Amino acid sequence: MLQLSEIFLSIQGESTWAGLPCVFVRLAGCNLRCNYCDSTYSYQPSMELSLQEIIAEIDRFSPVSLVEITGGEPLLQDEVYPLLSALLQKGYTLLLETNGSILMKNVPKEVHKIMDIKCPGSGMEGNFDPGNISCITPEYDEIKFVLSDRDDYLWAQRQIEKYHLENHKILFSCVFDRLHPAQLAEWMITDRKPIRLQLQMHKYIWDPTARGV
Ligand code: SF4
Q1: Inter-residue contact 153 to 147 (CB < 8 Å)
Q2: Which residue of 21, 145, 153, 169 is 20 to 30 Å from 195, comparing CA positions?
Q3: CA nearest 37: which of 45, 29, 47, 49?
Q4: DSSP letter for each residue of 65-87
Q5: 208 φ/ψ angles, rounded to the nearest 5 degrees
Q6: Is residue 112 a contact partner of residue 93, using CB atoms and an 8 Å limit?
């Protein structure tokens, strides 16, 4: 059984998959407490479902074939691994959103991992497991930095150098009410690095505090 917060169909708002219809499976529980967390409701489970029940819920949204497993932190529950394998076997394209603190060595390569490296502005700097660098590939996976300010922006660039991430898909995102995207865009245009600016699209389409979107 898995502890969940919610399952819903929406538009993918982040990553290079942004804009596509996507089924979100939000697992409950998180080992971090980012000071800007917009899904604190996921810390406690609101339901418990078997793998078969979760898959049946996802199938209900057919023909949508893109599924994101998110949280909370989805890798806290061991049963997530059979869920990933079962969904891959059914032919779903799978995204896994993870906070970077838990080693991903058992996540199948075919799962597109979107891994956070938590910046100082989150209050959770230092939780990144560097072993995760060897678990990601430039072809499949993406690395996300959520930035609060200029200090985070410069810190993120230093991590890219430190871990030799230049060939990876890198996403720079703004904490919604802290850093204006125009400011981040200005810095990125000045620096001319091959990094993608990411907006949390769902926060512009719907109320930024809305759940289940
Ligand atoms: S890792 Fe994600 S879910 Fe956990 S506290 Fe940080 S923002 Fe919230």
Answers
A1: yes
A2: 21
A3: 29
A4: -EEEEESS-GGGSTTHHHHHHHH
A5: -60, -20
A6: yes
Q: Average model confidence (pLDDT) for the chain?
A: 96
8 Å CB contact between 98 and 114: yes
Q: What is the pTM of this model?
A: 0.96
Instruction: Give me ligand 1 centre to Cα 51, in Å.
Output: 24
- The mean per-residue pLDDT over the stretch 123-148 comes to 97
Is 2-205 in CATH node 3.40.50.150? no
Q: From the alpha carbon of 33, which atom of ligand 1 is closest? A: 5
Q: Give the mutation target among 36, 37, 119, 148 for probing the ligand 1 site: most ligand atoms within 8 A of CB.
A: 37
Q: Is the peptide bond before 72 cis (omega within 30 degrees of 0)?
A: yes
pLDDT of 68-118, one tens digit each? 999 999 999 999 999 999 999 999 999 999 999 999 999 999 999 999 999
Question: pLDDT by residue (tens digit) across 144-181?
Answer: 999 999 999 999 999 999 999 999 999 999 999 999 99
